[in-house]
Amino acid sequence: MSRGGAGNMLGVGGTRQKLGRKALRGGGRNGRIGGGLDPQAQKRELLRKMQEQQREQRETDAGDAAS
Question: Where are the alpha helices (DSSP H) in 1-67?
Answer without folding.
Answer: 21-24, 39-66
